[in-house]
Amino acid sequence: MNTVLKFLAAACLLVAACAPASAQGKLYTRKAKLADFPTRTTKVVASSSNLLELAFREEVSTRWRISPYEFCTPEEFKAESGDNSLYFLYIGQYDGISYLVLYKGGSEDEEENLKKPFEVARIPISSSGSPSGRELMLMGAFIDIMQAYVEDAMVSEQAAYSGLGWYNRRSIKGMDIYLDPDSADSAYMQGCGNALVGICIAPHSPEDGSKCFRMLVSADTHELYYFESAKFATPQDAAFTEREKKKFTRRNGIIVE
Fold this sequence. Notes:
By secondary structure, this protein is of the alpha/beta class. It has helices at residues 2-18, 21-24, 30-33, 51-63, 74-80, 134-155, 157-162, 181-190, 242-250, and strands at residues 41-45, 69-72, 86-94, 97-104, 118-127, 176-178, 195-201, 211-218, 224-231, 254-256.
């Protein structure tokens, strides 16, 4: 009897292995979903209605290098967002924050997991209710961060599932860290080598569930070295904490006062 049961079990496994992928409800990893990215067109959704969109369009024109791209209107995005052969890069507003978003088109009604829509990454760039103007200056860095993340996510499952926090592992030993906005802006504009600039982003006013974000970005190469999201209950929450500053110092970063 045991021999018969073993035979039946083996037969069931063989049938399952030979069944079509759709019948098994095959799942794809984030890395697998991105495999076609370099050969697909990225539709850049940009209008000319405000300074942020104009800066976005200009920086994409000079910096985007990891896939073919073309510009489209918000109306075209709405009409084509169900096309699984396209990616879309746009600025979206969620919960008081403006984000740079990369999204793969698709339909939720598709049976095949690979053809469903997929948000690749979302990078906070400013308060949507009260932008500071820094986002215009930093737009090039945000676009470079997006490109670097996509390249890493295409080759590493760990990067693909870690999101922007993947870069917290980078060494900051011996690097100058500018947390004061004026000093940070100056270092960024000069493209100072060996320098990290602090970026804090929060909604205009806190609400239930509000989040703020803090980043360290290289002034010259625009690499992301630190990314943290936190609950936003008071304006003080948006600033780098004393605990974070001590963490940077323990990792042998040099905070420039």
